[in-house]
């Protein structure tokens, strides 16, 4: 059986673009989480930046 194309040679450009977009989203999430952790006081104060952000209307996006 003769095969003219090796499908394993490289990912399709659209797939690579999707992967790069996901990586960019993950980097943005990482930066946001780092900011929130920096705001955390680490005490028993009920005012928590991380919980406030998770409870905000835009937090469910992803």
From TrEMBL:
Organism: Paracoccus alkanivorans
Matches recorded under InterPro entries: DNA-bd_dom_put_sf
Protein name (database record): Transcription regulator MerR DNA binding domain-containing protein
Domain of life where this protein originates: Bacteria
